TrEMBL record:
GO process annotations (BP): L-histidine biosynthetic process
Coiled coil residues, start to end: none
Pathway info: Amino-acid biosynthesis; L-histidine biosynthesis; L-histidine from 5-phospho-alpha-D-ribose 1-diphosphate: step 1/9
InterPro entries according to UniProt: ATP-PRT_HisG_long (IPR020621), ATP_PRibTrfase_cat (IPR013820), ATP_PRibTrfase_CS (IPR018198), ATP_PRibTrfase_HisG (IPR001348), HisG_C (IPR013115), N-reg_PII-like_a/b (IPR011322), N-reg_PII/ATP_PRibTrfase_C (IPR015867)
Species for this entry: Cercophora newfieldiana
Gene3D superfamilies: 3.30.70.120, Periplasmic binding protein-like II
Name this protein carries in UniProt: ATP phosphoribosyltransferase
Signal peptide: none
Amino acid sequence: MAAPELISLQSLEGRLLFAVPKKGRLLSASLNLLEGADIQFKRENRLDIALVKNLPIALVFLPAADIPTFVGEGRVDLGITGLDQVQEHDAGVRELTRARRLSNEWSPDPNAKPQGCETVMELGFGACRLQVQVPAKGEYVESKDLIGKNIGTSFVHLAKEYFARLEAEKEGLTNGDAAAFAGRKLRTKIIELSGSVEAACALGVADGIVDLVESGETMKAAGLKAIDTVVDSSAILIKSKAPSNPAMVELIAARIGGVITAQKYVLCQYNVPRTRLGDATKITPGKRAPTVTSLEEEGWVAVSAMVEKKRIAPVMDQLTQVGATDILVLDIHNTRSS
């Protein structure tokens, strides 16, 4: 069996770089989204770069936590990651900027490439919450009870900002003062953990944790309970502030947006007497307006309208009640909207 051909830097020239989570909870849904957007590629074993066959794009498979950094620094143009990861990256940038300003090392470069990433759209999957968790049978009831304690987390920068605000409130500082307080040394100790954060309390490493929660079952099994939410998160599409090919970014965003819309809607088609058309279109107004065409049979019209998938059963019931017949529901694989 021949060894896979290595991808050279030359083969990336002229291609828009699109970062995709290489593993974890976002990978499968991200690949389904790319397939729906007709982004055709084959990822060779052990390679983290795949050339797209039908578009001038290269997919770069990266840890979700690293994608905001690569996009924010303009190393890649687009990326799929979690809002929690973007906010953690942004909090880290704020901390670094404060430190440089305090040490007089910071001086803006007017010719520098714009830094940071912008959210293009929410993708509708990967919902989770970054929560403060404590032992269910422990003494801590509110987050402020953890001030001065040990906190285990892989979201170090968000945890620091969160407890900086709590400490500022306890000191009686206003919102304006809180920004300055953020640069001071925390009383609360933030302990960076890269995995198995939920075990930190049971092992005596931390008094509480800040970690991602999806169903909450893992936390319950570890004897933990949530006492506050730091960030409500889901998967998002982000772009560089200075993409190499803005037109291609817009094209990919339109394709992905079409897939997301198609996942939420179905096409409902039916026939209805013209005298009941007003009642029927109130039930199926469509995204903008329904499509109405005359039938060969006098006094009847055919209607097509997009309906939210989760509402289709009661919509069909209501259409039947107003005299609609021949009701069909069709899947939508992709769409475009202005």
